[in-house]
Fold:
Amino acid sequence: MSPVAGFANPWGALALATLGVLLWLHRRDRRRGVVTVSSLFLWRRVPAAPLERRRRLRIDPLLVARLAAMLALVATFVRPWVAGTAARVEAPAHVVVLDLSASMRTRERDGTRFDAARARAAALADAGGDTMLLVAGVRPRVALRWSADPMLVRRALETLEPLDLAAGLDAAVALALGEAGARPGTAVVVLTDEPPTASALGADELARVDWVQLGRSDDNAGIAALTVGAQALSELADTSATIEVRNWAHIPRTVRLDVRVGDRPWAERTLELPARGAATVRLDHPPAAGTLVARLDGGDAFAADDVARAWVPTRAPLDVLVVSDAPGALVELVRAVRGARVTTSTVAAYGGGGAAAGRVVVFDGVVPVAEPSTPALYVAPPPGSPRCGTSARVRDAAVIDWDDGHPLLRGLGSLASLVVAGASALADVPWGTAVAHAAADTRAFPFLLAGELDGRRTACLAAGPSSPIASTDQMSLVVLTLATLGWLQEGATAGATAPLVVRTGEVVPAPRGDADDASVRVAGEPPVLTVERVGAFHVGGRLVLASLLDPRESDVGRDGPNEWPASVAVGGAAGPRDAREIAGPLAALAAVLLALEWAVWLGRRA
Amino acid sequence: MTWMAAEAVARAAHVCRRLTLTARHGVGDRVGDRRVPGRPQPSGMEVEAFRPYAPGDDVRHVDWNAAARTGGLVTRRFTAERAVRFDVLLDASASMDAPADDGKLDAVRELATALAWMGLAAGDAVALHALGRASGPVCRHRASAARAADWLATLGVAGELDLGPALATHARRHPGPAVSFVVSDLMAEPAGIEAGVHALRRARHAVALLHVLGPSDLDPMRHLTAGVLQDVETGATHSIALTPATCARHAALLAEHANALAGMAARAGTAYVRIATDESLATVLVERLASAGIVRRR
Structure:
């Protein structure tokens, strides 16, 4: 038989000791309290009388008010509850945490793992008691507030589906423990395919959770990695794709890989995969530029990693207009690029803005009279150049630092050996960032600036190649110059319209605009996006290609269904299902008593 | 002048605008503005009496009409005009500010300012003294009221005071004639106080005892909360069970002490006034001091 009343926080009764402290203070004040008076001239004639015990404990309204207020506060602290009319029905409340990670889509004998979790949650709701549904996706979310209606719980469960990403289960469990802590006697049930050992939660938290692991099958082969190799200034034919296909099962299997670019087939392979082994496929000479879709036809239990998407970029020949009064090594360098088209102009002849679309304008040691309307590279801009903030020419400069993460330097390796005899000391500019820094004898300065100016890519390079490419000892500078030109060329052709290739669950900067699918969540300023399902989507008109490529989710094999019941009750002693805390009224009573005590004290002062 | 002193003077000037101090005794020979009846003199502003002419009298003051009616020479006598020195003797012992809530020190400052203002407004001299310490300022003009108020505002209380000997010392250092107001809580044996009053009287001081009592003196049950009382001057303690009976006993003792002081004052020919600090200044002046003959309307 369940109790009709109790305390949710019985340890709070220790606060009753404060009543003793209050009494002791009161007695001490009466016994030791000294009041300064103007004179004892008359008081001395009143016989001295040590305070009698009875008088020390004389009922003082102020003391009574204080004791009552403290008692009410302590009563609030122990959080008493009383059972309602339905108290005799034994049915604990549940907070059910559902794992929405991709691996919950894995098919077992009788449906997916999420189907099993859904059935388990529905059974808990059918058993009676209030139920709250929490789902673990990119972040935890309450799918259903407290409800005692099993049908409502079932309907909420029907609306839930796993996502194609790795879920943050720990955060959801922590949230569930918090919700359960506010409702004594509530059980937290975690329905997932992960064992508790995979959780980063502490042992004390796991001890308060009924952990239910679902699933056993390891039948999965999937695409573990997909990369497209497209070097700057290369042609489409030079682009390659590398696909890693992995078998996560403990038995060998054969899969068929089909790769397409757009609607044109690229390759078909039949792969023999050993148990928990992998095969790597490298593909060259893509049939076209566009969306690359790699698809496995394995018929395994987990489908989310059977398809992956990437982007084969469009390649156009390098088209450069070099504006210089003394064209030299730089022109020769650009001409050495295969397929490059180079034209030259003097500063006087350059009219600005008239460059053809897709052309990169290079100002070699000169300041243009008019700004170009296409991507531009300012090489060794002379002092006074407003665009690059050049302050002076310096001698013997060496590159000392660079931003590895900048797309311009991607795959370029170290710039540590880059030393030039002369360079223009650039300054930080508002339109771009310093990609590389250099130092001379007396100063450090940006060596390479890159950014977007009025929507077109722009770069400033402190020094350019000074000797013929065939005999140069500045290969780092040559490579850096070509990489910069490649980055500018990319901006002149594909630029901002290139698709975003992301992994599900990954947070990346997003273009402005709305998504065409609820699976793509765009938020924040500047906006970022997270894709919850694999596929191709559009955000603000820009293509977003999302793939799983997450071995944690693809490795679906488990030891089998297992359960770890909670060993510690959540939120202290359990009360009846409809236990109603009466701490609120007690807190109000305490407030009233405190006000009364204050009034008594004020009255005594007055 | 500090802001507090200015405020005190303004308040005193407002309350005392129709009041003045009386001086039946303690009037000396120094010529002043105060008219003192009963001391006719050969010259003055107001005719008070007549007497037969005697050689040496100023012939300008012979009343010829009276001479025609009576057949003998009669000279006019005039009301004496004297300057009076009012000494305000303040008890500045620590007992005047304990308990702090009693407000005795503030009440004393206010009362002393009012007394000084009334004296100065009548053209008399006012001397302020903190008993047992160095003398305060002597003021002789209405404009000096601010100086007196300044001194009172900065007057601090400290230490013990044996009132009787202090009064005797003052009498020795500042002989009269003068009118002395003793402002104190008078918590001392009446016999000791009487000795000091007699010393003042011998030094030609007219004396008024102004007995200042605070709420804790008048109603200890309400204003004292604990049972151990400590004398602010001596530090001595006395345990008391603050019961209604105890407080009634204290009230009886206080009444007995006040009666003893009043009896002593009557014997010494001095005025005795009991003042409670929670009474307004107007009440103290118009009811207490006026009924004791210390203050009158002008």
